[in-house]
């Protein structure tokens, strides 16, 4: 689970908690919704940032994998919000970063 500090344009800040699988789900939604911007027709036209895919690993490697993904996830979030507003402010992105009931009772670990 990754801890993300979200700062909205009105200055409000919130802390949310997201699993890598939720980032991956968002990525798939973005590529489906914006095929041109996802580079499906022409890879040179891609503006949606890359996110490393899911990988299989043993339970003992969970922390190592999570730590290795910190920088790519940080870069992904920053790149995503720098995209044109029709992408960066689309419903899927806004919903992803909104506070959810789970965020009010964060994971103990």
TrEMBL record:
UniProt GO molecular function: phosphatidylinositol binding; superoxide-generating NADPH oxidase activator activity
A single Gene Ontology CC term: cytoplasm
Pfam family, one: PX
SMART domains: PX (SM00312)
Biological processes, Gene Ontology terms: superoxide anion generation
Domain PX: start-end pairs: 1-104
Source organism superkingdom: Eukaryota
Name of protein: SPD2B protein
Native species: Urocynchramus pylzowi
């Amino acid at each position: 689970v990754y801890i993300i500090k979200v700062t909205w344009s009105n200055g409000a800040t919130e802390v949310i908690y997201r699993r890598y699988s939720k980032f991956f789900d968002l990525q798939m939604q973005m590529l489906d919704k914006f095929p041109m911007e996802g580079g499906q027709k022409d890879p040179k036209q891609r503006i949606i940032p890359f996110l490393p895919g899911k990988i299989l690993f043993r339970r003992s490697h969970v922390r190592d994998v999570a730590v290795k993904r910190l920088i790519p996830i940080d870069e992904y979030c920053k790149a995503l919000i720098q995209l044109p507003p029709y992408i960066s402010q689309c419903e899927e992105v806004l919903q992803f970063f909104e506070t959810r009931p789970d965020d009010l009772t964060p994971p103990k670990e």
